[in-house]
Amino acid sequence: MGFSIALIPGDGIGPEIVAEARKVLDCVGSRYGHEFNYTEILMGGCSIDAYGVPLSDEALAVAKSSDSVLLGAVGGNVGNSRWYDVAPNLRPEAGLLKIRKELGLFANIRPAYLFNELKGACPLKEDIIGDGFDMVIMRELTGGLYFGERHTEEVDGVMTATDTLTYNEEEIRRIAVKAFDIAMKRNKKVISVDKANVLDSSRLWRKVVAEVAKDYPEVEVSNMLVDNCAMQLVMNPGQFDVILTENMFGDILSDEASMITGSIGMLSSASLGSSKLGLYEPSHGSAPDIAGKNIANPIATILSAAMMLRYSFDLDKEADAVEAAVKKVLKDGYRTIDIMDEGMTQVSTSQMGDLIADNI
Length: 360
Ligand SMILES: NC(=O)c1ccc[n+]([C@@H]2O[C@H](COP(=O)([O-])OP(=O)(O)OC[C@H]3O[C@@H](n4cnc5c(N)ncnc54)[C@H](O)[C@@H]3O)[C@@H](O)[C@H]2O)c1
Ligand SMILES: CC(C)[C@H](C(=O)O)[C@@H](O)C(=O)O
Ligand SMILES: [Mg+2]
Prior knowledge:
Isopropylmalate Dehydrogenase, binds nicotinamide-adenine-dinucleotide, alpha/beta, NAD, single chain, binds 3-isopropylmalic acid, two-stranded antiparallel ribbon
């Protein structure tokens, strides 16, 4: 079968890791008889340099008309880059927020899974990790602080900046439904994470989640405050199956969870809406500190491509093949530097991509 993929390499390590995911997809294509047609588009700093905007209308139109979108990462060194000395909607990250909003991708699924082979790269003690770590963060992606009204102004001679956090019950309901649906396919346990001791939006969040829970009597549901959750993740990670949370809490907690899997270079993600069109990207950023060195871990992007096969194209056995190839390569002892451990063989970004592709 043929599938169209909008490919967004982006900035920093983006082009390096996307090239490896494409290599793996091409192997899947020839092994299983599918044709993946790529159209490369610019987003982020590279688009600002070329067109003066982080995402052009033309690029957005290509993404909208594709079967799926695969992204590396966008952005540069925030404290030290010409891309950030401008209005917020002209910064590299604005392109990412725009594509998420325009494509209606309100559900960001971030699976945090510790491969047995990487237990040595996990910073937690063995007795804390126990049998392993396998959970999903269901992060709301098109609401909250990222999309609220904001401005900076001088008030009584003092510079004052404002961001607003708004959720309506429809936005909460649709992401809660996604979380409960995924829990039904897993261990039937949802922990909804909020800050209901302080925020009105979190109080509404709790109320709506409780309503949705009534439709899923088999799912065990509880609430947890976000600060406690940050602590519980490192103290007792095994208690989590599905975390359901709002946009910014999910952003922060997913970076934390990634380290339990060994490295942020292991955490894949899928951003979905109500159609088959999804955006697939690693959870990490453009890593300017290691860009251009061929040392970045491409596995998060490769596993994101596997999620694309599964969710956007319904190619389950092909997705299984990619995940199995990643596991085999780790089992054979190959590691990029971020997950390197004693007695293992260190490989580059492109060597890791070759090894995974060879194992499809
Ligand atoms: N989806 C995205 O496009 C996305 C996501 C997060 C951050 N960003 C952007 O990326 C830029 C850099 O942000 P940051 O430095 O805070 O976060 P980052 O995730 O880019 O990097 C954090 C640390 O993790 C390391 N790292 C990240 N990915 C890695 C990989 N695949 N293999 C090995 N090591 C890896 C980096 O070297 C760095 O030390 C910022 O402009 C930020 O806005 C973009
Ligand atoms: C770059 C930034 C806008 C983005 C986010 O916060 O959503 C990133 O950190 C992520 O996790 O995808
Ligand atoms: Mg993030």
